[in-house]
Amino acid sequence: MENHYDENRGNIIKTIIIIIAIVLIGLSIFLLVGNKKENTDNEKTETKKTVVTKSKERDEFEPSRYLDATLFKRNAPIEIKDNLGKLEVSVENFDMFDSALDEDFYGYQFNSPENGTIVAIKVSIKNTGKKVVQFQPNSAYLITDSKEQARYDSFIAEHSEYEWEIEAGDTYEGFLPFMIYSNPKEIKNFKLAFWDYDEEESLVLDFDMTKGQLLDEESAFVATESKKETKFDNELGEFELVQENVPLNLEQKSASFKVNFNSMDIYKLELDDRFVFENPTFAGQKYATAVIIDTKVENTNEDFIDFNLHPIFITTNTKEQLPTRTFGLGPSENLGSKYIGEVIKEGKLIYVFKSKPEEVKSVKFYYNPPYLMEDYDEIGDAFVLEATVDINPIAGLDEVTERSPDFFISEGMGSTTVAKQDIAINQEKNAGPVKITLEKLDLLDFKPKKSYQKEYFDGLKNLTLVRVKAKIETNTDEKVDLEFRKATITSNTGDTYDLKNMFLLNNYTAYGYMGSIMSDEYIIFPIKTAASEITHLQISFGAPLDEHYKELGEKMVFEIDVK
Questions:
Q1: Does pLDDT of 329 surpass 50?
Q2: In sequence order, which residues have a C-beta less than 8 Å from that of residue 385 and are 6 or more positions away?
């Protein structure tokens, strides 16, 4: 009995010892793994802190092959460091090159001088935050003591990145190239400015341009005037100069801003198909009149200001309203919309109109006020520039060209076939100060691509596009908005569509009409009913609105028999 008890007690002790041993072994393993993980994390952390990514330019800046550039200053020291939000910005040195601009570059920088100076600034940017940062080099600006402002320009560099991706703790090294047109012999200082669009913060660094060893005695820069081409082409079409230096002599101030329209040149423009596609109001024209305005804009305070030189409206005494926000029109590259402190910008504005040039006696440019970039507060007031002009007649503008209705449907959206064309409507409706005349329509069979079917066309594989030609007339001195997006179409089968998501099909005026206007518009409606089955259509437009979104009259409804 006693031996049996001793035997049981011995077994219990052995079991306890085994359990303790297992626990100790497990604890040792846990601590060992934990130490290894901690060491690994530390190693990763240490490695992370030393990662430096270099741009394709590496240690020396290489100008674009399209620029005849000659180095005259290399590695001029700067050594300035400051913070832009979570980014630690260090500027090491800069290079300077004389540059003759060839025709390819000249076409990009419209009407720029023939010679310029490249300033390539070497920077390193460290991300001190905990998240990856996508740094935008085009948020960098160079400002000289002559008040010239230049923006980061990727076209200047042979190798460039449009975005610098910087991991947390990493550093990115690269070059910020700028093209200036001031004589470098006359510049003593410049500022490098950054604007963080995400954090809405700014950073300005001041430098001495006289530092650094000159490789030659001095820059060979030769000041030249902007050359004026009598013939040239771009994405709008082919330009031919017919009248130059038409005086404007306009000046307008708004708070710290001063805008000058000095003079303009008149060109006969043979329209490119891309321009007509984006501006269907020119559908039947082969030629139009283009005006190129010599412009100077000055900001007189130290704030970061946004001022868009695209007018919100441009109108003429012939009741034409010109396109203002179309690709290819508006401020040339060296004007831009950002004004970094006290700067002066000079450049060209390009606009195209349908009216016979000799009938255009006055042009009005309507502008919103400038505003602060940091808080979007407006400074100053909205204003209007009104020019009285005297333009000579241009021969050959009346020549027309036929473009099929399916020309205006992007091939990227799907395939189209004209089913019926030039179906007469000739109906007009009035609402308040607005009259809409529907002149004719075309019916097109349309097969949208799969990527568009579900998102825009309710999954339909086949539709009919109804393309309506309309004339819009307004009789008021105020702004009027017709809200085409609320227009609807209904067929004899009861199918109904509206235009709220049809921005892909239409290039109608998005910001309404200003004053007394007469405008040709093309409006495209999608509908499920097959073209062969359409015998009647109802097209409805909402009531026009004033600038306070108050209705001016009733909605306008058109009943159309399709024969």
A1: yes
A2: 250, 252, 259, 261, 364, 365, 367
Q: How many CA atoms lie within 13 A of 348 on its CB side?
A: 21
CA distance linking residue 370 with residue 476, whole number of Å: 27
Residue 241 CB neighbour total at 10 angstroms:
16
> Per-residue confidence at 107, pLDDT binned at 50, 70, 90?
very low
CB-count exposure of residue 416 (10 Å: 0-12, 13-18, 19+): buried
8 Å CB contact between 496 and 489: yes
What pLDDT score does 352 carry? Answer: 92
Summary count for the chain: helices (H), strands (E) = 4, 34
To the nearest whole number, what is the mean pLDDT of the chain?
A: 82
Q: Please give the Cα distance from 551 to 563 (Å, whole number).
A: 34
pLDDT of 49 reads 43
Residue 15: count other Cβ atoms within 10 Å of its Cβ.
10
333 contacts 101 by C-beta, under 8 angstroms: no
The kind and range of the H/E element at 44 are: helix 2-49
| CA 261 – CA 358 distance, rounded (Å) | 20
Q: In angstroms, rounded to a whole number, what is the distance separating the alpha carbons of residues 75 and 257?
A: 37
Q: For 282, which DSSP code?
A: G
pLDDT of residue 171: 92
Distance between CA atoms of 92 and 451, rounded to whole angstroms? 49
pLDDT at residue 339 above 60?
Answer: yes
Phi then psi for residue 130, to 5 deg, are -105, 0
Nearest to 221 by CA among 142, 106, 113: 113
What residues contact 146, with CB distance under 8 A and at least 6 apart?
182, 186, 187
Residues 351, 354, 357, 361, Cα dihedral to 10°: -80
Q: What is the pTM of this model?
A: 0.79
pLDDT on residue 433: 95
Which run of H or E residues covers position 151?
strand 149-151
N residues, the chain: 563
% of the chain residues with pLDDT over 90? 37
Which residues, including other chains, have CB under 8 Å from residue 561's CB and lie 6 or more apart? 535, 536
> Residue 157 has which token pair?
């560099």
DSSP state at residue 545 = B
Q: How far apart are CA 372 and CA 307, in angstroms?
A: 9
Q: Name the residue type at position 486.
A: K
Given a cut of 60, whether residue 133 has pLDDT beyond it is yes
Consecutive H or E run containing 424? strand 414-431
What is the CB-side half-sphere exposure of residue 483 using CA atoms within 13 A?
A: 18
pLDDT of 213 above 70: no
Which of these, 438, 436, 497, lies nearest to 468 by C-alpha position?
A: 438
- The whole-angstrom separation of Cα 79 and Cα 77 is 6
